[in-house]
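Researcher: Next sequence.
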Amino acid sequence: MREVPLHRIREVYKNGELIWHRGA
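Model: Next structure:
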């Protein structure tokens, strides 16, 4: 698991798509 900034995760959640999860 790579470190993902909270603001990055928040942005993804705002979009409604877990990009960081899909790109894992």
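Model: The first helix runs from residue 6 to 15. The CA atoms of residues 11 and 19 lie 10 Å apart.
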